[in-house]
Design brief:
The protein is an alpha/beta fold. The protein is built from five helices and five strands; from the N terminus they run βαβαβαβαβα. A five-stranded parallel sheet has the order 2-1-3-4-5, with helices on both faces. β4, α4 and β5 form a beta-alpha-beta unit. The chain is globular, with a radius of gyration of 13 Å. It starts with a strand and ends with a helix.
Length: 126
Amino acid sequence: MSQKSVLLVEDEDNIALALGYLIGRAGYRLRRVATGNAALDALAEDRPDLVVLDVMLPERSGYEICQMIRSDAALAGIKVLMITASGGEVERRKGLAVGADAFMTKPFATADLTAQIHALLAEDAS
């Protein structure tokens, strides 16, 4: 069985470092980018199994990236976990409306994040 891959799209270095550590420790292959345009480039280069996607990014929002993933047949099946620091019910609903599989508000417990990633990646395991 091949190792599942995660694309982390997070512009805050401290948050990315912590999330990257957790994702790597959970056994997933990780790639991190810090901007919306870099996320699109990364998706074109190497299709991940999951995108952990911050809502507020330079260049393009996480909502826009999620919509682009969902409208591209070549990216069908990629799971999207959106994360945000300004997460009220409106943001969560918008994230799910644009196609996110799950939505988490910062700060969150590391165990909750890890469990959510495992759950999303287990859904498409055969």
